[in-house]
Inverse folding.
């Protein structure tokens, strides 16, 4: 049914730390690796090793330059389905294939009833849905619904593939409806925010802003000369001592 | 936005078909069942052919056309589903009216069938327009003028079609030609207003809002997320024709309104030429609708393209 559930007891989602994301695309490839062999049909690629490769991915990482409070920054920016609370991608679906789960808020596409009209992708301001030309159905992030509840996996593996793969811990998975969950506390502490909040889809996924270098406790790297250390020669050590005394 | 050829053909063909049914229905309401069955039956059948061809072609752009029947189920929330339901429901009064035309007096309530046919056609056209107008992700489409425009263009082409059929049966109806001219003018005015509106529209969302980082400014893409265009870029970022929007708009106005209007005036003044002037007007208007529909897609910008560095807002805003 493409009507939205009134409220979901759980709001499972991701929290993405733009401070620590290094733009390595490990989340992109691990997502592709897991989801091409799982739940739905494979995520098709066309001409993958040729001059014009294309294919369905459920997660993309952009890199942007920007100024934050006057300081220049490079920000790596993973973009995937935000499992919004009130998204039109669900309600525009004419068949009921696009749906939001009442129990945990995950937004999914039923590959057996999707007619491939692509209207849901038009309704997503985040560009999170990608059509699979081979399967003729829409593909999107499933929040690894076939991992997080999968009792055949060891418990530590029951989280989305992208979260498992992130080498810097920039991605976290949890219940954002529970104010005491680790992800919710982190969002509260770090000032987590929504993408395109003005649009009003109420994304569940949150992003954490890059920390201000002035307050983040980052010590600037020493100038190379200082790392050479004291000279070995006694006379040179004397010169260095005089140099030190005469400076500042 | 990428225009699916089948959707452009669908809305053009079925638009003319529904427009034809609307004017035929209104005429039946005013004049009752005509003594001569052939023109009305022809109009009903031709409308049916256009509508059905259009509906069938609209399934060609689907990944799974064989599942299209499922699209009738979600009318509570989806305009696309509502369009399907309204289109299917409209066939019922059309069928009843067909029988009423063939066997005058055999079926009571022909007026009711005609009214239901008009309402069904209007509802279907409205739903088609609302599929686009309900998308806040595409600011150019997210406006009440869009469904009104779909109805106006269908009314204009439908009136031309009915006038042509009448002429084919040697019937003269100045009133219908007047209706056709008025519909063409109304549709032209509406389209013009629409273009003025989208040209002057400010950008509703910015890249800064899309990224959302508090205090961030001067954002520009550094490294792309992928080396080649993906589905989102090809579908939402499609802009072939946008550069020539000015010229295409003039073509659309000439083909859709100016030429047909001249032809309608000629047909009204020199009835002998009706059978040449009106089919030409119809062909011209049909080609004009195709150009207009293409532009409707090519000029539409999608919010998601912000992430790829595109700007929203009117053509003037983009040119800055």
């Amino acid at each position: 049914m493409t009507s939205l559930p009134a409220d979901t007891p759980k709001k499972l989602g991701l929290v993405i730390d733009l401070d620590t994301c290094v733009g390595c695309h490990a989340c992109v490839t691990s997502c592709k690796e897991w989801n091409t062999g799982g739940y739905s049909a494979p995520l098709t690629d066309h001409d993958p090793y040729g001059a014009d490769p294309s294919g369905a991915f459920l997660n993309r990482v952009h890199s942007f330059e920007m100024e934050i409070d006057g300081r220049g920054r490079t920000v790596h920016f993973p973009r995937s389905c935000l499992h919004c609370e009130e998204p039109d991608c669900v309600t525009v679906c004419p068949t009921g294939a696009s749906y939001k789960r009442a129990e945990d808020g995950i937004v999914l596409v039923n590959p057996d009833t999707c007619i491939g009209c692509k209207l849901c992708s038009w309704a997503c301001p985040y560009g999170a849905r990608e059509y699979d030309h081979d399967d003729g159905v829409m593909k999107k992030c499933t929040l690894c619904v076939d991992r997080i509840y999968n009792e055949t996996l060891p418990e530590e593996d029951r989280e989305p593939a992208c979260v498992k793969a992130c080498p810097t811990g920039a991605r976290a998975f949890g219940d954002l409806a529970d104010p005491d969950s680790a992800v919710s506390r982190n969002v509260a502490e770090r000032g987590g925010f929504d993408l395109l909040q003005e649009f009003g889809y109420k994304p569940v996924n949150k992003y954490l802003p890059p920390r201000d270098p002035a307050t983040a406790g980052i010590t600037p790297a020493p100038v190379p000369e200082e790392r050479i250390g004291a000279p070995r020669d006694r006379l040179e050590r004397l010169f260095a001592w005089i140099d030190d005394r005469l400076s500042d | 936005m990428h225009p699916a050829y089948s959707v452009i053909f669908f809305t053009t063909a079925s638009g003319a078909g529904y427009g034809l049914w609307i004017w035929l229905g209104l005429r039946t309401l005013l004049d009752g069942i005509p003594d001569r069955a052939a023109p009305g039956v022809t109009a009903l059948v031709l409308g049916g052919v256009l509508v059905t061809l259009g509906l069938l072609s609209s399934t060609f752009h689907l990944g799974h056309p064989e599942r299209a029947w499922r699209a009738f189920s979600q009318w509570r929330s989806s305009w696309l589903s509502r369009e399907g339901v309204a289109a299917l429901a409209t066939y019922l009064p059309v069928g009843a009216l067909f029988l009423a035309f063939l066997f005058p007096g055999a079926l009571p309530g022909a007026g009711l069938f005609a009214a239901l046919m008009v309402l069904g056609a209007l509802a279907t056209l409205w739903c088609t327009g609302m599929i686009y107008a309900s998308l806040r992700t595409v600011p150019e489409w997210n406006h009440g003028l869009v469904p009104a425009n779909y109805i106006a263009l269908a009314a204009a082409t439908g009136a031309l079609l009915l006038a042509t059929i009448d002429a084919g049966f040697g019937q003269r109806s100045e009133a219908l030609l007047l209706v056709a001219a008025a519909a063409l003018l109304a549709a032209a005015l509406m389209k013009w207003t629409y273009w003025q509106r989208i040209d002057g529209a400010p950008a509703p969302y910015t890249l800064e809002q899309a990224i959302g980082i508090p205090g961030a400014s001067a954002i520009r893409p550094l490294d792309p997320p992928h080396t080649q265009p993906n589905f989102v870029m090809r579908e939402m970022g499609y802009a072939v024709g946008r550069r020539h929007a000015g010229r295409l708009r003039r073509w659309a106005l000439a083909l859709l309104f100016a030429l047909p209007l001249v032809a309608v005036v000629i047909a009204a003044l020199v009835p002998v030429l009706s059978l040449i002037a009106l089919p030409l007007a119809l062909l011209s208007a049909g080609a004009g609708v195709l150009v207009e529909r293409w532009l409707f897609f090519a000029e539409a910008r999608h919010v998601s393209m912000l992430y790829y560095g595109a700007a929203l807002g009117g053509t003037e805003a983009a040119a800055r």
User: Anything to note?
Assistant: The longest strand of chain A covers residues 59-68. Chain A has one domain: 12-208. Chain A touches chain B through 69 residues (CB under 8 Å). Chain A has a mean pLDDT of 92.
